[in-house]
């Protein structure tokens, strides 16, 4: 409905904003309330067809509107993508990973850079374990050459372990892990990164006992071989003494058996020392019987010297004592293998720390190579 002022010309219609008005669009009543016959309205809409310019302007306007909508949608999409990229870090067990992201990234970069050295450390520990087994096997087999070769290789492995572990500890700045450590670290790092960090530092710390244990294994093995050398020296001198006695050279036999007793006394002293820290019952008993045999031989040969080579009651008693003592000794050197196997068994505890370190390093390597945590 259009309000008009009496005496003022009516406002013409703007053609470009009109559309054909169907009969049902017309009001039924005029402003004065009288009925209007649609046929009385001669609007002649055909006269208001859009010109070429109007159509071009309309098309351009619609195109600009569409371009505007596309630009708006693109800007919203890009903005949303940026927000998502900034906040879409990998999930972690931390309550606020966005607060620890930067520190996590720094620490995980250090851990990633240390993977190669962790692998080298694990290889050296594995090799040290192999040399430990070779040392014990050579010891039980009375293989002095094989034992020395294994000990030399193990010493090289241990030197590399010490160097690599010190480098890793310095680069990662591993703390002395205690109950409060996690509480302090959680202020800076996420729980996932703390867990990986702990495993890495635990693995480094696990190699610390290897040096003392390897030294103990080396010392024990060399001590065992010293016993072997002493016994071999005794047996060699004892054999020469028996040879001299068989030829009636009793004074020479007495001298040689006395030297043999010195060697067996050295072995006996080592056994007594070992007995304070470990159980060596076979060695102790064998040495006791060997000393008894030597004492009986010495008594016999002195009796022979005193009797001028004649069989006297003293000589007969001495011969029986020698025979009884000899019956308690083994016919061959197989007992030596038993003794050394016994000693090697007592040295295996020195290799337990190697197995512990191998497990810790394997656990750390699994995390370093295969895990996905915040910061990566």
Give structural notes.
The chain is built from twelve helices and no strands. With 376 residues, the chain is mainly alpha-helical. It has two domains: 75 residues, no CATH class; 278 residues. Helix 3 packs antiparallel against helix 12, helix 6 packs antiparallel against helix 12 and helix 8 runs antiparallel to helix 9.
Give the helix level as a range of percent: over 70%
The major sheet is characterized as: none
Assembly of the depicted chains: single chain
State Rg: 51 Å
DSSP helix count?
Answer: 12
Helix/strand order, N-terminal first: HHHHHHHHHHHH
Q: Distance between the terminal alpha carbons, to the nearest Å?
A: 71 Å
Low-confidence stretches: 11-31, 83-94, 372-376
Shape descriptor reads rod-shaped
- The total tally of domains equals 2
Can you give keywords for this protein?
376 residues, mainly alpha, 2 domains, 12 helices, 71% helix, disordered C terminus
Which helices and strands appear, and what pairs or packs with what?
Blueprint: H1 52-87, H2 97-113, H3 115-140, H4 144-172, H5 181-185, H6 191-206, H7 210-246, H8 250-275, H9 281-307, H10 313-327, H11 334-347, H12 352-370
Helix pairs in contact: 3-4, 3-7, 3-11, 3-12, 4-7, 6-12, 7-8, 7-11, 8-9, 9-10
Briefly, what is this?
The chain has 376 residues and is an all-alpha fold. Helices cover 71% and strands 0% of the residues. The chain has helices spanning 52-87, 97-113, 115-140, 144-172, 181-185, 191-206, 210-246, 250-275, 281-307, 313-327, 334-347, 352-370.
């Amino acid at each position: 409905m259009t309000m008009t002022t009496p005496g003022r010309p009516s406002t013409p219609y703007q053609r470009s904003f009109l559309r054909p008005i169907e009969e049902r669009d017309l009001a039924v009543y005029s402003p004065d309330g009288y009925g209007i016959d649609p046929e009385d309205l001669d609007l002649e809409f055909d006269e208001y067809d859009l010109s070429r310019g109007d159509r071009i302007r309309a098309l351009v306007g619609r195109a600009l509107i569409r371009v505007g909508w596309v630009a708006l949608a693109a800007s919203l999409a890009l903005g949303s993508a940026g927000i998502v990229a900034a906040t879409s870090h990998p999930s972690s067990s931390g309550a606020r990973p966005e607060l620890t992201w930067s520190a996590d990234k720094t620490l995980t970069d250090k851990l990633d850079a240390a993977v190669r050295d962790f692998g080298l450390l694990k290889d050296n520990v594995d090799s040290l374990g192999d040399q430990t087994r070779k040392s014990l096997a050579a010891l039980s087999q009375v293989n002095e050459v094989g034992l020395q070769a294994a000990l030399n290789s193990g010493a090289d492995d241990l030197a590399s372990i010490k160097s690599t572990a010190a480098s890793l500890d310095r680069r990662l700045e591993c703390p002395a892990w205690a109950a409060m450590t996690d509480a302090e670290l959680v202020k800076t790092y996420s729980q996932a990164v703390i867990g990986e960090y702990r495993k890495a530092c635990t693995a480094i710390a696990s190699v610390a006992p290897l040096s003392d244990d390897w030294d103990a294994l080396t010392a024990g093995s060399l001590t065992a071989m010293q016993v072997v050398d002493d016994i071999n020296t005794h047996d060699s001198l004892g054999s020469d003494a028996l040879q001299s006695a068989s030829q009636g050279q009793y004074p020479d036999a007495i001298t040689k058996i006395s030297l043999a007793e010195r060697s067996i006394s050295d072995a006996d002293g080592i056994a007594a020392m070992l007995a304070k820290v470990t159980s060596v019952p076979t060695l102790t008993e064998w040495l006791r019987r060997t000393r008894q045999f030597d004492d009986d031989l010495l008594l016999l040969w002195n009796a022979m010297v005193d009797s001028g080579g004649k069989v006297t009651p003293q000589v007969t008693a001495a011969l029986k004592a020698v025979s009884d003592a000899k019956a308690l000794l083994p016919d061959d050197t197989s007992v030596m293998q038993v003794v050394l196997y016994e000693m090697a068994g007592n040295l295996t505890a020195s290799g337990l720390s190697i197995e512990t370190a191998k497990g810790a390093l394997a656990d750390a390597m699994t995390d370093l190579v295969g895990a996905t945590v915040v910061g990566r």
